[in-house]
Specification:
The protein is an all-beta fold. The chain is built from no helices and ten strands. The strands form two sheets. It has a six-stranded mixed sheet, with no helix packed on it. The chain has a four-stranded antiparallel sheet with strand order 1-3-8-7, with no helix packed on it. Strand 5 and strand 6 form a beta hairpin. The protein is globular.
Length: 114
């Protein structure tokens, strides 16, 4: 199993980013996937999950601002982050499955600061 996140960066409050996760080593198209994040000095926080067919769920803190999607033909998971806030700062990881402690990639850093 290999998960590679990309697309993070520094953005001002109110800005947007799209992070991606390229997956390999398992049947991506039939696997639930999730995004989690970890703020400095804090534990893992569930952000969103998506079913193989694209049904999504979000934590209340990001609902209406973040959108999870997937391209099963490209084995890629996406997270569109809009209207970013300083409290969204952290390392973002994609997770195989629905367990926040499941297999994850190396992460991509999102920093929201003016």
């Amino acid at each position: 199993v290999n998960l590679v996140e990309s697309g993070g960066g520094l953005v001002q409050p109110g800005g947007s980013l799209r992070v991606s996760c390229e997956a390999s080593g398992f049947i991506f198209s039939s696997t639930h996937m999730s995004w989690v994040r970890q703020a400095p000095g804090k534990g893992l926080e569930w952000v969103s999950s998506i079913s193989p067919r694209g049904f999504t769920a979000y934590d209340n803190s990001v609902k209406g601002r973040f959108t999870t999607s997937r391209d099963n033909a490209k084995n890629t998971l996406y997270l569109q982050l809009n209207n970013l806030r300083p409290e969204d700062t952290g390392m973002y990881y994609c997770i195989r499955g629905l367990n926040v402690f499941g297999t994850r990639g190396q992460g991509t850093q999102v920093t929201v600061s003016s």
